[in-house]
Prior knowledge:
By secondary structure, this protein is mostly helical. It has 2 domains: about 1-65 and about 100-275 and about 345-360 and about 470-505, Serine Threonine Protein Phosphatase 5, Tetratricopeptide repeat (Alpha Horseshoe), CATH 1.25.40; about 360-460, Up-down Bundle (Four Helix Bundle (Hemerythrin (Met), subunit A)), CATH 1.20.120.840. The protein is about 40% helix and about 5% strand. The protein contains 19 helices and 6 strands. The strands form 3 sheets. It has a two-stranded antiparallel sheet with strand order 1-5. Helix 2 (about 35-50) runs parallel beside helix 6, helix 5 runs antiparallel to helix 6 (about 125-145) and helix 14 (about 380-395) runs parallel beside helix 16.
Amino acid sequence: MKKITLIIAALSAIGLSGCKKYLDQAVNPNAPSVTTLQLSLTGAEKALADIPNGNGSASYGTGLYLQYGFWIGYWAVSSGFIVQPDLSQYVITPSEFQSWTDLYLNLSNISALQGIATAQGAADYSAIAQIMRAYDFEALVDQYNDVPYSQALNPNIIFPAYDKGPAIYADLIKQLDAAIATINSNAGATPPQGDDIIFQGNMTNWKKFANTLKLRLIIRQSNLSNFSTIAADMSTTLKEGFLDGTTEATANPGYTLNDAYGGQESPFWLSYGTSATGAPEDILVKANTYFINKLHGYNDPRLFQLFTTVTDPVTMQTGIVHGLYLGDPTASQDTNSAAGLSNVGPGLLISASMPAVIFSGAESLFLQAEAANDGIIPGSAQTLYQAAITASFEEMQVPNADAAAATYYSQNIANVGWAASSANLESAIITQKYIAICGYGNFEAYNEYRRTGYPSDIPRSLDPAAIGTGIPTRIYYPQVEYNTNGANVGAEGTINEFGSKIFWAK
């Protein structure tokens, strides 16, 4: 098995110490192991699903992307906790909110998978590895901007240089095109079977996933001056189709609620659900009043799927969703007791054995709606927009989902009804996307807010000690990079959490 670079070796030592992970296939460079093609695929796919769903070796609290749910207005810190400066005051350090370790560790898994697949002539496995590699590297760029890419995971380079974000994006699009071409040119290849815990060897669906990821990479660059040139490349793979309400990218290796061994639950459940004894896995996360009010204003029934209902501790009204603002200095145990605040709801926490969402159909359809509205792909933007809302209602298991969705998007309310939103269709698409990806897509909501500025009314923390202006624009490079690859990360200059931006940000 290929060795991995010092940067990743150091991360492995820090990130995996004392951590027992279900189906973990992370490479230990000091004790190389022998694995099979099938086990390598399953392990890499499992880790791919863990990261966006909050289960990682280097996570803060219970979730790798936990902070984005707070900063983007979905969640507030429970009044049962002391002030969380990093969340409610935006006091961030290079040691916090890091998914760097987990992403590069899984990229080492993917690199090993690709090496085995190439050696064995397993074309479909190789293509899947390319697609997963693009998914993880996009997440790195979207958090850190410039990162080690062309020299990363090269066993002969101890201190990998940093590549520029735009160059990485451009190459990821090429890699996705190449993966699609590999699948198309090897129609007789033996596909994976049960070892593929995402699509069970359905290579048509893998092409749709690759094409949808390509569309996201393209749309993310909408603020760039050369966007029209970038977007034109979408036409080369249009025939491959996209993920939708019937075809999502989700993983399930056989999740189950098992406290005896631990970590076998679906990763989102493991982060925010309950143990086998019914004890909550997380008591920090509560509903944000901003988000509650927004959904009430839209008459949105998904509110009661996104959060649990409680009894208002002041009015004693039952069956409501009750929250507080992030950092609210007036919140107290008397008026906002933890027991009287809404938790993550049943539309997200379906069961401990639920599939882990990697790329939802709703997110894909909203991407397509924006692309159609901008003339990048053919089709009716309105039809795709309404299909995206319907997919979201179905994903959150709203009762009578299709009919409820039709009633919802037929309202004469801006950012809900298509006709009512004609003055600013981008705002409507992104606002509804923001609602649809709450929970599983906190990081994507944060990305889209930084790209578009929508929803435009997301409030800053009310904590009087909150620093800076606006919402943080990025996190810092991890401390381990400054310790092990200092010259290269130092060349990136001083990072400011409120001033430094990802290359595609508005």
